[in-house]
Amino acid sequence: METKKRENPPLISKATIEFIIAVSISVLSFTLVNYLGFFERFHQTRGRLHRFIDEFMLGATFFAIGLMIFTLRRWLELRKTHKELAESEEQLRFQANILDEIGDNVTGTDLEGKITYVNKAKCDMMQKEREDFVGQSVRVYGDSEVAGGTQSEIVDTTLKEGKWSGEVINTTSDGNKFTVELHTWLLKDEKGRPTGMCGVSRNITERKERDKELQQHKNYLEALDATAGALLKSTSEIDYEEFLSILGPASGADRAIVFFKQVDKDGNAIIRPKSQWCKRAIEPLKQLGRFTTDLWPKWEPHLVKGNPIYWLLSELPEDERAFWGPTNIKAMLVLPIIINGNLEGFVSFDNRLKQQQWTESEIGFLHTAVNNLANAMRVLGTQEELKKERDFAEGLIETAQTIVLVLDKDANIITFNKYFENLSGYKLNEVKGKNWFETFLPAQDKEKIHHIFDKAIEDIPTKGNINPIITKDGRYRYIEWFDKTLKDITGQTTVLLATGQDITERLEAEQAIKDSEARLKTIFENSLDGILIADIETKKFQMCNQAICQMLGYSEEELKQHKVEDVHPAEDLPMVIKTFESQVRGEFKLAEALPIKRKDGSVFYADVNTSVITLDGRKCIMGSFRDITQRKKAQEELKKAHLELEQRVIQRTSALQETNAQLLKTMEERDRIQKVLQETEKLAGAGKLAAQIAHEINNPLAGIKNSLLLIKEAVPSDHQYFEYVSRVQREIDRVSHTVKQMFNLYQPDATPAQRFRLSETINDIVELLEVTLHEKQIKMEVDCPTNIVVSFSEALLRQIVYNLVQNAIQASGPDTTIKITAWAGDGKVNMSVSDQGSGIEESIRDKIFEPFFTTGKGGPKSGLGLGLAITKDIITAVNGTIDFTSETNKGTVFNISIPVQKNEEEK
Question: Which ranges in 813-899 belong to alpha helices (H)?
Fold first, then answer.
């Protein structure tokens, strides 16, 4: 680091000036006496020689007097300066010990930028000893322009402006770099002259990394939202160039390409690019030559399963490196485009400038975007597919742990998701159609946020706005918003889509840190506890604060002349000295209720908490004294009262025993009756809830069914999607039957039997839950012979299997497997559904089939606790059986056996 030169000292020092003044006064005094004629009158009878000698001696006397005055003054000043210097050094050593105990890094330098002091935290962070820093330039911390400034710029700014704040890159002894938040200021003496500089820093590398990851997460969310918006605008044809231009920059890749699988005139499958995006200076990818024949057969089995392919060039086998080497591609990520279970193509992301390793989170975001592309392609094919995709998007919004809010152009609420309902306390039907600003915003923020809303509705970006909302119970929650306008086919803005993250806890944590630092400083400067520091060897007091002086009645100077033995009663000294020595050895820190003697001889009691420190190179012990005299007195009075109370309790115990026995019997009877009432209320509530839900669903379901019948008549039987109409009709009938069941929740109707293949029914249910299984990273295994054909109510069996599998999904964690096993025999269908979850606790196993009993936490994915209750009632109604076995941390197996009218096995 460049150093700053000190200011040149004055040509004539203060002492020289004072000396000249003293001599001048002596000369002037002698001249004045001579001028008044004193010597002429004194030497009238003397010779000339005597007169000269007397004048010379008198002048020397004046000079000597002036010199004595100057010398005495300088001696007094030096003595005062020496005393002040000794006191300052003592205080500095104490402050240095304190600074060594704090967590922040402290550095002191002279005006040239050379280090004069570092505390222990700084040495630990830099992995060096204190001797490695003292005398060195601050360049030893590392010099980089990546952050807020170089070490030279920091010194220049501090000397010029008196302070500097910002971020700096430091380098440890082993070469590791980390970011610190640094604050510096200029140190001055009592006359305002600069004496040096001080800097306090804190390692914020981890916080920077978290902020970077959070920003990357936001970028992906914005890109995902933007691509979804682009796909939603695609009513007749997808704009692949726009899709890639949004997703490509967010992916971190140099190039992104959409490929589709086609068939040539000879019937051979070929892979051709549909559209691609490239960074500047990156050339578009040309034909890959042997890719279709050599590499595609290896890729296709993985992609058809929905699995991504990603590799680094350095990790590929030699034959594949030879293929990709000429393309200059160093890393690639390939995500499949799967439509209706068929692999239609893929999207590739590649890097030519560096070997970037995509993280699981990044792959997940990109996979979601590619899945959205596949969904958009499927939507353009059929209206039924459009409905499925809409349901998927709504489900994604409802389960997302992010606020999703839709407002019209007048800021009236159109809709929001379940997450926001839980956060705000409002149900959608309570506030739908109401003005957002009048309902949720504090009065002081309405004007500012309304201005931001006006900009957003005009399609002016307003990302990252933070403002509070008021929940139903009056609490404030701080939300970070990201806005997106949605337009109709004419390009007119229709609604504003806003997504938000609740950052209240993060803001509260940051404020708590600031408050904690302020409180610590205040406590240190204004401690109410008395503090004494004593030399361990001599037991003489070295330091004290004002609180202990007030406790003992001594001044600070008086206490420094005393020892540990002087502030305790003589009769308690053996015990006090023994306690002192035990605390020095570190056997314990807190000594309770020690007797303390004041200056006037009175005694009080205090708890003394100690720690061993080093002061001026000597081992000392620091004690914190808290006066507990009143507490000790209160404890003694409480003990006395307690003894009296025990006597009274003993006297009354015998009289209460008989009464307690009668009361216990009454309470047991009351608990039994209350339990029966609770079960009755649950059953009544379940029936009422089921009837309400069924009523609300039945009317729109009838409209859907009628509309489908009209569509079925309009679709010719030879249409390629005619089979989906029948499939939808079957699902509507199944939902209608489920609604009918809800009217008789605990007495299922005897529905007519149907012949169906058991494996097909189970596979249909697994397909319905495929999205949930993929989100939770759960595998599903089905072991059911395809030749089992049974005659039974398919709707009831679907309800039973669906509830058991859904229950297993809720109990399972990532990377686990759910297994369905089915077999038939002796006129019964037998099935087992097993998971690898945490198991069912012993204490709740007898409640597992009770209505409204659930082990969920109340989140958006936890149910009402009716699934297993309904399942058991259905099975009991058809004379079947259901039971389960469970082991802690190994999982649960549900076994069911249902009699059927007839079982067949078909080849």
Answer: 867-877
Nearest in space to 220 (alpha carbons), one of 366, 395, 394: 366
Hey, what are 735's tokens?
């939902």
Q: d(Cα 617, Cα 630) in Å, to the nearest integer?
A: 39
Quote the CA–CA distance of 404 and 221 in Å, as a whole number.
12
pLDDT recorded at residue 85: 67
Long-range CB contacts for residues 707-713, cutoff 8 Å, separation at least 24: 708/732, 711/383
Helix (H) or strand (E) holding 633: helix 629-714
Taking the C-alpha atoms of residue 416 and residue 218, their distance in angstroms, rounded to an integer, is: 20
* pLDDT tens for each residue of 603-651: 998 989 888 888 778 899 888 888 888 887 877 777 787 777 777 767 6
- Name beta bridge partners: 610: 623
| 40 φ/ψ sector (left φ>0, alpha ψ -120 to 50, else beta) | alpha
> What are the strands, taking DSSP E only, across 253-326?
255-263, 269-278, 309-312
CB crowding 303-330: b at 16 or more within 10 Å, else e: beeeebeebebeeeeeeeeebbeeeebb
CA gap 358, 252 in Å, rounded: 9
| Position 683 pLDDT exceeds 80 | no
Contact 477, 471 (CB under 8 A): yes
For residues 130 and 125, give the distance between their C-alpha atoms in angstroms, rounded to a whole number: 12
Q: How do residues 748-770 score in pLDDT, each as one tens digit?
A: 555 567 788 888 888 888 887 88
- Would you mind telling me the total number of residues written for the chain in this entry? 907
Cβ count near 784 (within 10 Å): 19
* Cβ–Cβ < 8 Å for 359, 251: no
Contact 398, 418 (CB under 8 A): yes
- Residue 148: helix, strand or coil by DSSP? coil
